[in-house]
């Protein structure tokens, strides 16, 4: 009976702290709580894979926070990219979640369900006005009241085209395909003209592609999947035909998201989708290809990727933790971060910043501007309920349908049944 | 130098054949780690030899992460694992192979049994145990669960079991007790397997990623495999750096292997004289 | 009882450290797994007793049936090949020739190569336009590239080759240590008698490493039934179209990892795999007893 008791006391502390914070709160645009709100003590901040490239930036944010609140001491823990889910899970399971943790929405959902995260809709209502709605929506979950994270940085995908390959094989890189029909048509041209040597497409459809085709992936209450519709069958059938026609490499059947970008980097395919900073990583992996790449807006509704920081419901210094979470995600600090790399702030204040809307003239700069321009209409195309296991069974069934091992309808029915099974309990 | 007999030529031919089949990963890593920043790495057919060979990537690894302190942490963990296994697994293996006692069969069965049960689901419960001992976020906590691996107990048991019974019987007649028999007859005859256990436990501890990641929270205590992950960060990953890091992590393994493999044979001198 | 190490507790003194580790770090988690197998536990929360519900679910799980079939095929191929090839390799590198340390170390490198590097190299070999397909097409042996990485059976075969490639060095090391104990005098006596290399191998080497061969074959069957990384790496974690190339451990991994994993069901799958593995192992031990 220990857990409910601690939970109760934590909740009580949180509410008290929330009130204190609310009283002392400065107007909505100020990023931080007032020092009189009890922002003291030791708090831990856990980030994901920001060292060593952003060590100076994060340390700067922490130093300025400690300077602003002299009674606070911040312990910074940066975890490596690989295995982060396991790390956070073991922290959560053993009750040692850091006070402030970088959690993408699909990590935050299960923790919020267990009451492990503070609802900032209750503890820090004034903050909500600072952030764009898409960012906040990512931390509101079906079946739960409240907002369980401060949106941090955002990203989306754009299309990248290998202009050299396109020109060489009779396509105009200035007029890349703008939808699936054009994509398949140009893929055919490229295949024929290159004698089957170069592909345009190298990507299986995902749940996001179904969302884009108007399929409702999940019921509103987040309790069951609904993507086995005729529209979904039509999408899978198109890809299946294209695969049969030889418009995609066979290895696409087992390639994951990174596989697509990898094939592009190797010069085997002429199209990939990736985030706004793809060209800069291309410049490292394949420097001679990087200048020959052009970008265009994603097909349909662009996907929205959100990172955020959540406050542990069991934090011993909730006032300091909340202040730190807001400080890290404040308009100024986010803008400074976004100037360092191709990510985008989740605060409204940055919307008019010409830095994001004007290209420096390079193809990398163009891609960043394309991505930024897509952000307002970008949406999370895949429900947060889709965890690792569910996305794996969906991938398996989609690839079975495309390979011809089952009809699209059968594959979709199996995928929905298995995904529902995984969702339950 | 002995002359090239027909047998030796055949041996070298076979050795080279196997070498071609096994050397791939090593050669690829080495080549990538030496490539300059202007070279393409992921072209359709990557150039095997670096065109602008440089050691710069190694220097950059040392600049980007505290590689020396990670190596020190890894060495501490590996040393604990090697000591624990060399002592604990050897003693237990001896008991299972050469001493008769009630419950021996049951113990052997349980040891084998734990090898069969998949460990994938137990990692969190393992963490809770280590945390309960107050060893979360310590290097000791990383080393502890693997400090006596049941696989090594079985390996040592097999080695001890291969010693002819007559040797023990003669010693018993001479009045030697279990400890004396262990030291005088047991140990000298299992040097080979002992070095295998040293290699396996060193490499196991050195290469482990998920477990140290879960146990350790403070990045200063990270072991090398965990720390090297910083080279493939969220917004930056240079395969040349990763390859250089992998090579750095690989070197100590090669050294330990090279040293330990000399003990595979009962006496190094014997092999040198008669081989 | 004048001497310290003569008493009836002596064996227990030797076994004590190992015993403590056995109980704390092996039996206790195993016990937990057994308990969890009858609950609906999740990594966070859950954990109500659900009786035999997980077992019923497992018996009706067609993916588990496929995975078990894959694992058994895997074992049947790996067991003979990996019991013998590494022994031959050990005999090859046993002799102290100039540079032999280099060869021994290099043969061992696949064991410690990181999964990422291994995946890169093997995909480069096996892709549609990989080295092997390219070479076979150039020779004119095949017209169309073989789908080594996407066909259900070819992918399994590719993974088995990868296992053998990695396992050679590993088991070679174990054999090498055992070969050191095979008496050199026996070999020399036999050579003087005029016995050929093949006969010496069969009549001296094999009997000399008999116990080690048994242990190695037990280890091979256990690890073949528990194959994970090779299939995972070659299929980029997808388990092939329709998940037809998943092994049981891949299934366990899929269900147990992540925030919403079905820990209870994954534990039940572990028990199923345990039961399946015990069979071949008892058989191997029995065969050995008969042979001895």
TrEMBL record, chain A:
Pfam families: SBP_bac_1. Keywords: Cell membrane, Lipoprotein, Membrane, Palmitate, Signal, Sugar transport, Transport. The keyword Heme does not apply. Residues 1-24 form the signal peptide. SUPFAM superfamilies: Periplasmic binding protein-like II. It comes from the Bacteria. PANTHER family: ARABINOSE-BINDING PROTEIN-RELATED, POLYGALACTURONAN_RHAMNOGALACTURONAN-BINDING PROTEIN YTCQ. This is Multiple sugar transport system substrate-binding protein. It comes from Nonomuraea endophytica. The lineage of its organism: Bacteria, Bacillati, Actinomycetota, Actinomycetes, Streptosporangiales.
TrEMBL record, chain B:
SUPFAM superfamilies: MetI-like (SSF161098). GO terms for cellular component: plasma membrane. Its main location: membrane. One of its GO terms (biological process) is transmembrane transport. Belongs to the binding-protein-dependent transport system permease family. The keyword Lipid biosynthesis does not apply. Keywords: Cell membrane, Membrane, Sugar transport, Transmembrane, Transmembrane helix, Transport. This is Multiple sugar transport system permease protein. The chain crosses the membrane at residues 12-30, 70-94, 106-128, 134-155, 194-214, 241-260. Gene3D superfamilies: MetI-like. PROSITE patterns: ABC_TM1. Residues 71-260 form the ABC transmembrane type-1 domain. The keyword Endoplasmic reticulum does not apply.
From TrEMBL, chain C:
It is found in: Cell membrane. This is Multiple sugar transport system permease protein. The keyword Methyltransferase does not apply. Keywords: Cell membrane, Membrane, Sugar transport, Transmembrane, Transmembrane helix, Transport. Residues 68-284 form the ABC transmembrane type-1 domain. It comes from Nonomuraea endophytica. It is a multi-pass membrane protein. GO terms for cellular component: plasma membrane. The chain crosses the membrane at residues 12-31, 72-93, 105-125, 153-176, 209-228, 263-285. Its main location: membrane.
